[in-house]
Amino acid sequence: MNQESPRRSAAWFGRKGKDGFIYRAWMKKMGLPSHAFDGRPVIGICNTWSELTPCNSHFRELAEHVKRGVYEAGGFPVEFPVMSLGETLMKPTAMLFRNLASMDVEESIRANPLDGVVLLCGCDKTTPSLVMGAASVNLPTIVVSGGPMLTGRHRGKSISTSDVWRMSEANRAGQLDDMELTLAEAGMCRSDGHCAVMGTASTMACMVEALGLSLPGNAAIPAPDAARKVLAHHSGSAIVRMVEEDRKVSDILTREAFENAIMVNAAVGGSTNFVLHLLAIAGRVGIDLNLEDMDTFSAKVPLLANLQPSGTYFMEDLYYAGGLPVVMKELLPLLHKDVITVNGKTISENYDQEVCFNRDIIAPLDKPFNTLSGVVVLKGNLCEQGAVIKPSAASAALMRHTGKAVVFEDIDHMKQRIDDPDLDVDETSVLVLKNVGPKGYPGMPEVGNMGMPAKLLAKGVTDMVRISDGRMSGTGFGTVVLHVSPEAADGGTLGIVQDGDLISLDVYERKLHLHLSDEEIAQRKAQRAPAPVHATRGYVQLYQNHVEQAHLGADLDFLKGCSGSTVTRDSH
Ligand code: FES
Ligand code: MG
């Protein structure tokens, strides 16, 4: 045993006497030989496997491939579970628990004898929660994403998450029977993996690759493809080298890396949820990133990936066209090329030899699919700290629009009122939904692209300006203003809007304005009842008392920053 080992794990496994005995003896019950404790890098595999997170249900097998790579490079892998956030089953929204899961990840890594960590991430929130937690410990860390599902197939057609909404509406209208819907259910999610479009899970997989936190190619390899297992194997070897070379999260997550991630997100047409998660991650590593940066750096970048919901194709197609590496190569003239990634190479070293195999799917920088991309940040008296809109998902005719507010005080009020035939609403109205923000719901659910009034749908209206303090699914679309900050439940002006008030949206001028005098706004705010308290105990109470507003990333205020990896005291 190497008592001189400088490794972190030596403070457990390198010890003599009672403590070392305890630290090693129970590990040996798993069949580990003494040389496993000789000072070689101990690699944690942080696993979000769960049958309640179907997108991550293949992660036990994926972890085995990471282990092969760790052993091959001379490391010692140990797999451990953390809280897994499944997007489809968790109520009221998985977002409520992102910060809780990040605490589990942070403390699990710090408390244990680990020298480096591989994060197995897939479904939407599993990526930011793991990266946030790991960043607050700052060990050498590599992300392995689970990969997207194969494209869904139903009656000879490609289908995906976005068709859930279309098919269920057709079923309600009697155009699609129940049996047909059941058949579609079985064809939509027909393989391992996360959602097959550029929704939030794929957005997060692109984000970690763009940040340099994964090996090249991580973003798009489909979950069932053998190449995904090979990537996991290589990542296992790479983390051992990363430990040996002492490259930490903070060496990767520089200000330049964050700027690169914003540019890549714009080029792939990523989800608006990217904004919240990237801001929260930046907060953990102490990088001064703000909401305006999301606009500044995406404004330079056109849309290069033709993927749903901004375009036509699926993640599987992106992989066959060359994957995110080709997008990165096209963007090299705009990116910070010299930032280092987990494998010790720079962005340009990793990507400058990539070749595109299908220009219908990945466009060159000089012939983009759309000059509109990314996220526009709005300011005005209706969103003093900002709001966001995804222009590529909005209607051109509504980007500059003034209309009368139709106000829903909360989600229940909206459900009860939206299809009322007597509702005073037309296609020029602006729908306002309050109390779906971080504190107000609580947890900031994906309801911002609220359904439109039935009587307008019947007239053939397909889009209206919609404003809320909530989020929208990465697969959603429409002229939808999201993440209004401060939210209604935190004293924001959104909370005092009334039916009939005039609201102006101007995406070109980046403005969101409520046509009321400052005096009128102040007067209404003074008369407003305090926001309801949703929980008097437990995590939800903690969350309500400490969650920050959307423009800061909606992390808990006391989780900002990094506590490092040092633990000085023993357990016995
Ligand atoms: Fe898990 Fe879409 S539901 S990624
Ligand atoms: Mg989602």
Automatic annotation (TrEMBL):
Keywords assigned = Iron, Iron-sulfur, Lyase, Metal-binding
Q: Where is the Dihydroxy-acid/6-phosphogluconate dehydratase N-terminal domain?
A: 40-350
Pfam families, per database record: ILV_EDD_C, ILVD_EDD_N
Q: Which intervals hold domain Dihydroxy-acid/6-phosphogluconate dehydratase C-terminal?
A: 360-554
- UniProt-listed InterPro entries: Dihydro-acid_dehy_C (IPR042096), ILV_EDD_C (IPR056740), ILV_EDD_N (IPR000581), IlvD/EDD_N (IPR037237), Sugar_Degrad_Dehydratases (IPR052352)
Entries under SUPFAM superfamilies matching the protein? IlvD/EDD N-terminal domain-like, LeuD/IlvD-like
The GO terms describing molecular function are: hydro-lyase activity; iron-sulfur cluster binding; metal ion binding
Q: Which domain of life is it from?
A: Bacteria
The text of the family note is: Belongs to the IlvD/Edd family.
Q: What is this protein called?
A: Dihydroxy-acid dehydratase
Native source species: Cnuella takakiae
